[in-house]
Amino acid sequence: MEHFLGGDWEITPAGGVTGKAFFARHAGKELFLKRNSSPFLAMLSAEGIVPKLVWTKRLENGDVISAQHWMNGRELAPEEMSSERVARLMGKIHSSKPLLNMLKRLGKQPVMAPAILAEVRARVDLLSAHPDVAEALRFLEDKVPAVQDFQLVVCHSDVNHHNWLLSDEDELFLIDWDGAMIADPAMDIGTLLFGYIERAQWSTWLSQYGEGVTADFFHRMKWYATAQLLLSIEWNREKTRFHDMNQSLQSLHELINVQFILDGNGASEQDAFKK
């Protein structure tokens, strides 16, 4: 990497589980470099969803290096996830036809609920004796037929607050798109609503996003949020991050007991939910 940029550049790892990301600094210039990033990055940059892509170059060994402007800023705090800006950017992503068409051209196939259920079953086998995990698995199995007929969009699949960047220039970005997929938008929205946003704010947040509060959307969100939480619990177990695992197990206990309240005319005017 140093040979590629020149010896005057200071290059340091940017962290992350893949080891493919780096910071590069020289003479007041700062770049964020990534090895073998998807061509999807260029479309995300053009849409203003990630920091601007500066260049993409191929190395002699076949690796492709992409460079983005390094944005000084910070990740969002959990309480900031309820903001209108997050809702509108999420709505922009899910409604973008150029992003969807690009993923299709890259050969991405839709990720359907039965495939996600199969992955969950295979991954959480060692935890299946835990009562909350067992109940969550039964819920996923019982309800999977109800989440197979939906609109397919570009999903980020990991919309936790660590992946939202607010720049010093007050620009909001959603970064780290390695897990991008074509799937039900309820996959992303379930994580956001169940993980960060008070029930009383759901109707307003979803209106800003561009979706209404319906029983169908609620149940799809709950299904995907449950599946993702189970996978997170298993990941923390594998990494021996037992404190995080136990916190997620508590969140799972709360999630599987959330219900959607309907009145005779559909959703109540207060969009009431209970645990």
UniProtKB/TrEMBL annotation:
Residues 15-214 form the Aminoglycoside phosphotransferase domain. Keywords: Kinase, Transferase. It comes from the Bacteria. InterPro entries: Aminoglycoside_PTrfase, CcrZ_PhaseVar_Mediator, Kinase-like_dom_sf. It holds the Pfam family APH. GO terms for molecular function: kinase activity. PANTHER family: CELL CYCLE REGULATOR CCRZ, PHOSPHOTRANSFERASE YTMP-RELATED. This is Phosphotransferase. It comes from Domibacillus enclensis.
